[in-house]
Write a structure and sequence with these properties.
The complex is a heterodimer. Chain A is an alpha+beta fold. Chain A contains twelve helices and 14 strands. In chain A, a hairpin with a 5-residue loop joins strand 2 and strand 3. By secondary structure, chain B is mostly helical. The chains are: A alpha+beta, B mainly alpha.
């Protein structure tokens, strides 16, 4: 039984696409996020491919590329793509169909529609097609964590007793004291941002630029789509202002008893970043959040800011594997191994 | 090629490498893909083993489910590769 891969017609074949995603990636409500993810992205509509059984034409796999506007080496508005919604029915996971789909995701790049596309395999399994294609990761993110409270961790490890509760309380006081010592004073006004992102965020994005690195663009349109219109997730946004002017922002999401820094951005990040992280820590401690987590690339400004704010390095996380058309300026730029300023936001579909 | 010996070699590799195969006491006719014993990374490891052990070269378009469905299917696949002389092109 051979497998064919062809582009999907997003409108006519939406139900087939949703069926494959729902049976292979059941943790997400694909129906609720479909229009937002596939059609309403300000960077453009998604590309999508089906893997089909040649004889029956029954879809057995799917892969998509979601457009992303990026800064590449100081130039803004470069259209790139993130590979996502990659799913293959179990009886067809013999690598061949996955390879065909992975190669199909390179098509918009080879056709000159995208500068590059990237995938973020979370584990070794996700690297199998790239290993077969002889592709190496461009970089690898690292998880950073900062404990805020200890009662849940202690209870999980040592059980519930009055002694353990007392020890956790002492631990909490120590963490609070350490945090108070770190916070000091800063000249930023930190506030919860409740409304849509407006043009001052676009201005901040342009002011920060990207020099010799690669990062996502953060225009007001990009941010509203990502953080305000997402039908499945809610985000908390903190802004930092200096004399009324926007200097930076932080986006966080709660999950179980923890909170995740989804994005942290500012000018200059080494000053505004710690102030925003400390404000988040204070807010989350009051909400009885146990730990803060963040993703960053070791050696970047963001990683240094996280460490200064009391985060410690934890395990290696997702890799970033990028494909660019050989012989292009982007391909040459990527070959020079530029810095990837990626955050958790860049891994979200 | 000795089919029984080839099947034993392949089954031994799978049982040692993939814990689910060991738990299921894998036979030559058990489903490898449908049961979740093999996934794409597992197939990649298995291809590496087959290429080394049987001196054959497996191309991308041979990475189809039919060739990896069971240990018996793998033996037939390896035998076909060996008999058509693809082994010298590794």
């Amino acid at each position: 039984m051979s497998i064919l891969v062809r582009p999907a017609r997003l409108d006519e074949e939406k139900e087939d696409l949703l069926c494959i995603l729902q049976r292979n990636l059941p943790d997400l409500s694909h129906t609720r996020r479909f229009d937002w993810l596939y059609h309403r992205n300000p960077a453009g509509a998604a590309w999508c491919w089906f893997a089909l059984e040649e004889k029956s034409h029954k879809p057995v796999g799917v892969a998509s590329v979601f457009p992303r506007c990026m800064w590449i080496g100081g130039a803004s508005g470069k259209l790139c793509g993130q590979v996502g919604d990659f799913a293959i029915d179990a009886p067809h996971r013999s690598l061949g169909p996955a390879l065909l789909l992975q190669k199909a995701t390179f098509d918009p790049v080879n056709q000159g529609k995208l500068e590059f596309c990237y995938d973020c395999p979370p584990d070794d399994r996700g690297m199998s097609t790239f290993r077969r294609l002889g592709m190496e990761p461009n970089c690898r993110l690292q998880r950073y964590a900062r404990p805020l409270r200890l009662e849940h961790r202690f209870a999980k490890r040592f059980g519930n007793s009055s002694v353990i509760s007392a020890l956790a309380l002492m631990g909490n006081l120590f963490l609070f004291a350490r945090s108070a010592a770190k916070s000091g004073t800063n000249d930023f006004e930190i506030a919860l941002h409740l409304g849509p992102f407006d043009e001052e965020f676009t201005t901040l994005d342009e002011r920060v630029g990207a020099d010799d690195s690669i990062r996502s663009r953060r225009s007001s349109n990009d941010l509203n789509w990502r953080f305000r219109e997402d039908p499945l997730h809610q985000y908390c946004v903190l802004t930092a202002r200096r004399r009324g002017e926007l200097a930076g922002f932080l986006v966080a999401a709660a999950q179980d008893r923890d909170a995740y820094v989804v994005d942290l951005f500012g000018d200059p990040l080494d000053r505004v970043g710690p102030a925003l992280l400390e404000a988040l820590a204070q807010q989350e401690r009051r909400a009885k959040t146990q730990s803060l987590h963040a993703l960053a690339l070791p050696g970047t400004e963001l990683a240094r800011v996280l460490r200064r704010a009391g985060f410690s390095e934890r395990e290696a996380s997702a890799r970033v594997v990028a494909y660019s058309k050989p012989g292009t300026a982007t391909s040459e730029f990527l070959a020079r191994r530029p810095q990837w300023s990626f955050t958790r936001m860049d891994l979200l579909a | 090629m000795d089919r029984t010996k080839a099947a034993d070699q392949i089954r031994k590799f799978i049982v040692e490498k993939f814990p689910l195969a060991k738990r299921k006491n894998l036979t030559n006719t058990d489903a490898l893909l449908d049961s979740g014993i093999l996934d794409s990374l597992g197939v990649l490891d298995l291809v590496g083993f087959i290429e080394k052990e049987f001196t054959v070269r497996v191309s991308d378009d041979e990475l189809i489910p039919e060739n990896f469905r069971t240990v018996d299917a793998l033996v037939i696949f390896v035998e076909s590769k060996s008999s058509n002389g693809s082994g010298s092109h590794a």
